[in-house]
Amino acid sequence: MARIHGRGGAGVRKTNKKGAIKGTGGQKKKGLEGKGPTPKAEDRVYHAKHKAKLARERRNSGRHQKETAEMVVGRNPVIECLHARVPATSLYIVQGTRNDERLSEAVAMCNTRNIPILEVQRHEMDRMTGNGLHQGIGLQIPPYKYADVDTLIDEARKNDEPGMFVILDNITDPRNLGAVIRSVAAFGGHGVIIPERRSASVTAVAWRTSAGTAARLPVARATNITRTVQQFQKAGYQVVGLDAGGEHTLDTYDGGTENVVIVIGSEGKGISRLVRENCDQIMSIPMTAWVESLNASVAAGAVLSEFARQRRIAKK
C-alpha cells in the first residue's frame, strides 16, 4: 500500500463530487462593471480647474471674488513684463534652475528696481502656478487698483481742456484693452471705463500691450454701463457710440470743443442695445466699402487721433 507523505493528508487533492463549484450568485457583478468615462478636470471637486470653474461662475453671476495677485510664468513673458514696467511684488525662481541670459536679465532688472527675489522648491512653484510649465521662473503682479467713475469726472474738471473718455462694451480680449489704454493715453484722453462683468480686465497681458501706459492712465470699473453713460451725460458730456450706420461719421462730428465720451463695442457684437439707445449720437468711421469692420483698438485709435487733431486746432 502506498504511503502518503505529510500530515493530515495535505498531499491529497480534494474534489467536489456533487457538481460545479458554487459561484457568487452575481453578488460581485457590479464590481466587474466599468465605472464610465473619467469626469472632466473641472468636474472633480479636488481639482484646481474645479475651483477655477466656480470662480468663473461667480464672476458671470455678478458675485466677484476678491481680486488676487497674478503670477506671470515663463522666461519671455517675465522679461516682457519687466520691460513694460509692469508693477511686481516679487520674482520667484525654482532652486537649481538652469541659468541663461533671460534669467540673468530678469534678476538684474529686479535688483535694480528693488523687487524681492525668492528661491522656492519646484513642487512649491507647481502649486503656486497650477502647472509645471513655468520654466523655473514666475513674476507676481499685484491686483490692479481700479479708479472710480466719479473720481475720473472730478479730475477731468481740473484740466483746461474738455474731458475725453472711452467706454468699452463687450471687449473681452485683454490685448484689445491694453491697446485702447495706450491710444487713450497717446491722444490726450483722461481714462477708460470697462464693465465689471463679461469684460477683459487689467491683467499682465493688458499691461504689456499698453506698453506701460496703464501705470499712468486710470481705468475704472462700472457695475452698469448704461447708468455710467447717463452719469457722464448729467456731468455735461456728449456720449458718442461708435457703430455702423450712424447719423454722423468721423468726418462730420466735432469732438474737439466739448466734453466727449466714446463708446466702443466689440468687432462682432458691437454696442449693447440699451447702451446704444442711451448714446447722444451714433458715429461711424468712413472706410473702404469691402471692409466690414475694424478691430476695437484700431477704431479707438482712429477716433481719438481725429478728436485730438480737432482739439489742437481749437486751441489756436
TrEMBL record:
GO molecular function: RNA binding; RNA methyltransferase activity
UniProt domain RNA 2-O ribose methyltransferase substrate binding: residue ranges: 71-147
Gene Ontology CC terms, in alphabetical order: cytosol
Database matches in Gene3D superfamilies: 3.30.1330.30, 3.40.1280.10
Biased composition (Basic and acidic residues): 54-67
Parts forming coiled coils: none
SMART domains: SpoU_sub_bind
GO biological processes: methylation; RNA processing
Residue numbers spanned by region Disordered: 1-67
Keyword Methyltransferase: yes
Keywords linked to the UniProt accession: Methyltransferase, Transferase
EC code(s) of this entry: 2.1.1.-
UniProt cross-references to NCBIfam families, sorted A to Z: rRNA_methyl_3
Family (UniProt): Belongs to the class IV-like SAM-binding methyltransferase superfamily. RNA methyltransferase TrmH family.
Name of the featured protein: TrmH family tRNA/rRNA methyltransferase
Biological source species: Corynebacterium endometrii
